């Protein structure tokens, strides 16, 4: 850091970065930018009057790496955000009513004899073994038992197969990152942006104008202004690709409730009549919400369904939110990069939005421009962003497309709709013999796809013939042994509450 701080900047270096928006996206970006060389000034504008979306409480494991990269201590972070740990997502009523399966983080079984684990599992299942695949995943078994411990760094123990993420209070997380960023030199500007000036010569953003008349200029603008896309859309007209024909949910209601039972170390997503409900356990309260399709239900029915599904007393009135699922056609235009809700929106079924912010930040850092703004960098950023949004989109659509429910118009509609061709191909390949076609750097692993496919009754007609190399009975003994080790290990882990009380509870 000292070396970087004292090094002279490139003659064309960006010297001023202006982040517009102080929600999760704005403050995550600001925190990451504290790692830029000194000499680059980073400012963030936010408006208390407008506020932030205030939801976004469940995450996936890469956030652990983001925090670690910033040097954030996990226990302090959990304390500051009322956080809990998350080992996966439980899906209830998705394939059929009464179903319950886990999409766990972490490894599932182990590849044997050069054959993927799920192929061994498949062959045993096709031979009549009813054991669900999640019984071979320590994260899933521990989650169901309400246990938690972080992964071991010793690869010889099954504890090394664990992965975790967090649940946290979104407002507290933004506040935590704000303190972190301000302490490291980010300047916060309170104010409401009311105008954007473009340079006549090339249409780049020159400055933004605040309601009190101040003008703030910069070389690089980061649009974290939320759904509106104040810079990327309203000023630069990047365009929006609407995906609501595949993902018809367009509204949500969010409400906190009192905690009742033990803190589950997983998020729950329960399918409802025209959408689904989330349940996110925090130390002090539970976050709940209902994501639904306004074409298939009314706001009143959605509200009633949300309140009826709460386990504890509601602590506030349900708060409505509206959205259009899709992505900004170009997430980087000229000297403006959009991150967070301004760059697109995918419903929170797999808790991916905060991750999309994180990966957008990583891409920006990897392709950090000079003031020349080489179009090749911009093009690469946009191409990678598009691929990632589409991959996540397909994974989310799978949950709907793979339903066997036909109890409401909504479920009949999503089961019958055409899925994107990329997803149809993936489903066909898996059905044929449990095979995959994945890019190496895709977010969701094969194990994640297998969890949802099998959890929602998409089962291959055949298995990899190489799995037949081990006699059936011998493999059955091996798998029973593995299940036993996983079960015993999970039972020996502390409960989630005990772990939090020991490590990360705020002082009373
Ligand atoms: C119903 C729902 C549930 C969700 N659940 C999850 C989840 O479980 N997990 C997950 O990863 N993600 C989830 N998300 C997504 C997550 O909430 C967002 O990705 C995240 O909060 C980032 O939001 P943001 O910072 O882009 O936008 P916002 O929070 O909307 O922040 C926008 C910022 O811009 C500022 N601003 C706007 N206009 C102006 C202006 N004119 N002048 C100055 N400032 C301005 C605002 O004041 C605010 O600070 C959910 C989203 C929704 C809608």
Automatic annotation (TrEMBL):
FAD binds at residues 22-25, 193, 341, 350, 354. The keyword Flavoprotein applies. It comes from the Bacteria. InterPro entries: FAD/NAD-bd_sf, Flavin-dep_Halogenase_NPB, Flavin_halogenase, Trp_halogen. 7-chloro-L-tryptophan binds at residue 86. One of its GO terms (molecular function) is monooxygenase activity. The active site is at 86. The keyword Nucleotide-binding applies. Keywords: FAD, Flavoprotein, Nucleotide-binding. This is Flavin-dependent tryptophan halogenase PrnA. It comes from Brevundimonas mediterranea.
């Amino acid at each position: 850091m000292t070396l970087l701080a004292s090094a002279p900047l490139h003659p064309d270096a960006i010297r001023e970065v202006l982040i517009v928006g102080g929600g999760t996206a704005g403050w995550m970006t600001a925190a990451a930018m504290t790692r830029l060389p000194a000499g680059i000034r980073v400012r963030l504008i936010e408006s208390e009057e407008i506020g932030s979306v205030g939801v976004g409480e469940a995450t996936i494991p890469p956030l652990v790496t983001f925090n670690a990269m910033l040097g954030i201590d996990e226990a302090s972070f959990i304390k500051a955000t009322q956080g809990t740990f998350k080992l996966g997502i439980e899906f209830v009523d998705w394939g059929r009513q009464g179903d319950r399966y886990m999409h766990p983080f972490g490894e599932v079984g182990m590849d044997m004899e050069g054959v993927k684990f799920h192929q061994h599992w498949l062959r045993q299942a096709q031979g009549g073994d009813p054991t669900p695949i999640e019984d071979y995943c320590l994260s899933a078994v521990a989650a169901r038992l309400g246990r938690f411990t972080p992964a071991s760094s010793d690869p010889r123990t099954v504890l090394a197969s664990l992965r975790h993420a967090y649940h946290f209070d979104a407002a507290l997380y933004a506040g935590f990152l704000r303190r972190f960023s301000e302490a490291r030199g980010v300047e916060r500007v309170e104010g409401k942006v009311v105008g954007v000036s473009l340079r006549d010569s090339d249409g780049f953003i020159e400055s933004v104008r605040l309601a009190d008349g101040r003008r703030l200029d910069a070389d690089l603008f980061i649009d974290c202004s939320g759904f509106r896309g104040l810079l990327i859309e309203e000023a630069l007209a990047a365009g929006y690709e609407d995906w609501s024909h595949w993902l018809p949910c367009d509204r949500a209601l969010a409400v906190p409730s009192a905690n009742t039972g033990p803190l589950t170390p997983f998020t729950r997503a329960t399918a409802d009549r025209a959408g689904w409900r989330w349940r996110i356990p925090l130390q002090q309260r539970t976050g709940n919400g209902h994501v639904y399709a306004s074409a298939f239900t009314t706001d009143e029915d959605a509200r009633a369904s949300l309140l009826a599904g709460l386990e504890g007393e509601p602590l506030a009135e349900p708060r409505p939110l509206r959205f259009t699922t899709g992505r900004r056609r170009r997430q980087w235009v000229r000297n403006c990069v959009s991150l967070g809700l301004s760059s697109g929106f995918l419903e929170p079924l797999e808790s991916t939005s905060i991750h999309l912010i994180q990966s957008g930040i990583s891409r920006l850092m990897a392709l950090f421009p000079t003031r020349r703004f080489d179009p090749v960098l911009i093009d690469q950023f946009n191409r990678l962003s598009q691929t990632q949004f589409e991959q996540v989109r397909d994974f989310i659509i799978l949950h709907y497309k793979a339903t066997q429910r036909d109890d409401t118009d909504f479920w009949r509609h999503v089961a019958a709709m055409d899925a994107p061709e990329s997803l149809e191909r993936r489903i066909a390949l898996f059905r044929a013999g449990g095979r995959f076609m994945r890019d190496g750097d895709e977010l969701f692993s094969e194990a994640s796809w297998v969890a949802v496919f099998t959890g929602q009754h998409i089962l291959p007609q055949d298995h990899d013939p190489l799995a037949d190399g081990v006699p059936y009975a011998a493999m059955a003994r091996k798998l029973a042994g593995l299940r036993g080790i996983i079960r015993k290990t999970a039972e020996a882990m502390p409960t989630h509450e005990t772990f939090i009380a020991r490590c990360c509870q705020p002082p009373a």
